[in-house]
Amino acid sequence: MSGGWIGFDANLVTWLLLAVVAFSLFQGIRRGASGSVKQLLYFLAGALAVVISVVLSALAASEFSPRLQEWLIGRNMARPEPDASFFAQFGYTALSGIRDLPLLRFSILFLVFHTIIRLLIGFAARMLASVVSIPFSVLPSGGTVSRSVGGFIGTALGTGRALLLTALLFAYCALFPQGPMKSYIESSGLYKEVAAQVIRPATGNLIEDKLPVFAEAMSSELDQLWLKRYDVIDAELPDDIVNAALTVTEGKTGDEEKARALYDWVGSRITYDNDKVRAYEDEGDWREQNPAHTFATRKGVCIDYARLFASMARAAGLEARVVTGLGYDGRGGYGPHAWNEVYLGEHQRWVPLDPTWAKTGNWFDSPGFTDTHIQQGGITG
């Protein structure tokens, strides 16, 4: 030890770690040498099973993830018709999310493989531990020597458990740097010493650097999956929206002409709803509205513009999606914003557009679009 933690402190984390060791010590004394050896072997076998199952599951998920994506792409899933059932719409949204979101796809495959492999390896490991422990069953379970040996083994087992608990706390502090209790956890002298002397050297930069990056990427994909709910919510297109979309795009040839016409229509016909923004900022009152409401009232905020454009684009036979992130506020900063992307078949690419800002200039696939729009959340469609 480095000497950074001397004696006891009043931190509950310190006492929790000590209690884990003390409880295991008590169990070891009570079980004696024979029972403690068996318990230690079970613990080691379980730990080994976890490591092996995690490694094998990660390898299997990495191997099958691209194959699953190829299979889903090959299915040529078509967006359900507006009058399709909720389950059809939900199924399309879920499967398209698995197809398009690599971390989500990997995580689902990992959980499936891990569940199967963990059960098989866990059962085999416990059987092996039982067999290995047979020679130790002849050890006495009572008496001073046996209980002393049991206490020693129990202490070793408790130390292992305390290390696992410290590693979990360490991962929590790395994942949630502003999380509740983080400062209190890190004020524990015993936790700091174990983390500095054992956990950090053993894990390198895996927990502190790579785990938060993975968690942030996963959070972004979950945001995208959450936004895909609009594929279900906005799937049923009212007749007035369909008719308006067909009228606006009538006589237009090609996806780009249709998309530009709809961009101009939404951008010029819808008025930004400042009252809705104030109600949310001042009172926390968020007024959710669907494209039909935006179309009828001709008012909305950025997400409402984007959802209406996406609905009208789909009514006109275009592929469109909603994108969320940050938009430049004109004062040197950025704020929450939403816009669209539409697929132009003649160019075979997705292009960005922002109908909310249409009245301020050309924001249809404009140069420098990414300088003022930073995708940070999800994409639907």
Textual characterization of the structure:
It comes from Cohnella lupini. Pfam families: Transglut_core (PF01841). This is Transglutaminase superfamily protein. Keywords: Membrane, Transmembrane, Transmembrane helix. Residues 294-357 form the Transglutaminase-like domain. With 381 residues, the chain is of the alpha+beta class. The protein has 2 domains: 12-222, no CATH class; 237-379, C8orf32 fold (Roll). It is 66% helix and 9% strand. The chain is built from 14 helices and 6 strands. The protein has a 4-stranded antiparallel beta sheet with strand order 5-4-3-6. Helix 1 crosses helix 4 and helix 10 runs antiparallel to helix 13 (302-315). It is elongated and about 95 Å long. The protein starts with 11 loop residues before the first helix and ends with a strand. The model is unreliable at 1-7 (pLDDT under 50).
Architecture blueprint of SSEs:
Blueprint: H1 12-74, H2 86-100, H3 102-133, H4 144-175, H5 182-186, H6 189-203, H7 206-227, H8 229-233, H9 239-248, H10 254-269, E1 271-272, H11 274-283, H12 291-297, E2 299-300, H13 302-315, E3 320-328, E4 334-344, E5 349-353, H14 369-372, E6 373-379
Parallel strand pairs: 1-2
Antiparallel strand pairs: 3-4, 3-6, 4-5
Helix pairs in contact: 1-2, 1-3, 1-4, 2-3, 4-6, 4-7, 9-13, 10-13, 12-13
